[in-house]
Structures are given as C-alpha cells and as structure tokens.
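[Automated response] Your request has been received and processed.

Submitted sequence:
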Amino acid sequence: MAIDKVTGKRINTQIKTLRDKKIEEEKRKAEKALPKFDTTYEEELIKALFEEELRKKEEKKEILELAESIPDKTKIHHERPGEEWDVPITEEIKYFDPELSYELTGYRPITMEKGLDFDPEPFREMATIFESKGKYTEFPEGSKPWRDLWMREIDRMIDGYTIGKYRVTGDNYYFLNYYRMQTIKESSDRAGEGREENFPSFLAKQYEWFHYVEMAEMLGKDVCALKARGVNILPS
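Generated structure:
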C-alpha cells in the first residue's frame, strides 16, 4: 500500500501505477497535438494572414465598384454638361440643389468653383449711386426721366434683374439697393461705436436663399431652413 500525496489516503500501489501511466499518456497525446512553432510554421502563418488581408481588400474593392455602378435613384436632378441649364423648365422640380442651375428662376451656382465670372457690383447700381451722392437720382421729381427711372426700378423689384447669364430675384434686388441695415465698422476704437447704417453686401448664400424662396412661390411649395440660435439668415 502507498499514501496518496493529494488526499493523504492509502491506495493500492497497482492502481496508482496504472493511474500515473494514464496521466503520462494523456500528456504525450496533448504534446503531440500542439503545433511546432518553428521557422517554417511562422512563415506559413504570416503568408496565410497576408493572403487573407489581400482577399478582404479585393472583396471591398469589388463591393465599392458595384455600388458606384448602381445609379442613385434618389438624385433626380443632375448636371448636364454642354447644356445651358442643369434643370430645364420642362423638367419637374423635386428639390432645390444649389450646385445646379435652374431655368425656372434663372439661378446659376456661385461657389468657390462655379460662377467665378460673376460680378455683384452691377446689381448694386442704385445703392452705389446713393452711397456716393446721398440720393438715388438728380432728375427733377415728376419729370419723364424721373418717372422712367422709377418704373424701371419697380420692374426690377418685381421681376428681378438679369445681367449676362446671371439673375437676381426681385426681392434680392430690393434688398441690395433699398434696404438699410446696421453694419459693423471696419475700424472702431471704443465699444458701442462699431455700427453704422449701410446697404447690405452681396452674399452668395443670400442669393441662393432668394432663388429658393422664389422657386417655392412659383411652384406653390413651402420653404424651410435650419440655422443656429441667435444667428439671422436675413434681417427681419
């Protein structure tokens, strides 16, 4: 008889010997099942991982190419290179995309890449005259030139004004030439002295907004805009 080192109990020596042999045999089987981490195995493992990475990249490339080949059905309007308008008047307007030109209101994009030949100053003709002379005209009130001038201005404020290939809406024309607002002086020494009444400057985003509103009016649609709190898009 022998004493079990784990339990402290007496056990049959023959049984202990059989049990020890079985444990040793299980250890040898486990050791044989483990991979041999020699140089060849490491090289094969790295190669397999590299091939798997290449396969994933190829699959991703194929998916992207397939996605690009499928036309975007949500984008109804699109650029028409070589044509005068991206969205001609014969096409039903589903939305306003400021990157496209619309025949309905004569809108053309003015961005960092498009409309680089646009000059806003001719659209501010009356404001420029008032700024230099303190009045819009020297024609005697009631005279024919005076009446012709104001009939022309009323027409521009109603129908808009077109110069070359660009058009501002009537509301935008009125805003640029007859609306007075508080603007910040470029040079002011003390707080409270930094504002003065002046004509608004031409802003491309306001130009877009006026066309968007006019387009909605002509189509019988509502308009909406998102803005930060405390920031005015246009003066009320």
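Summary generated for your ticket: The chain has a mean pLDDT of 83. DSSP finds six helices and six strands in the chain.
If you did not submit this request, please reply to this message.
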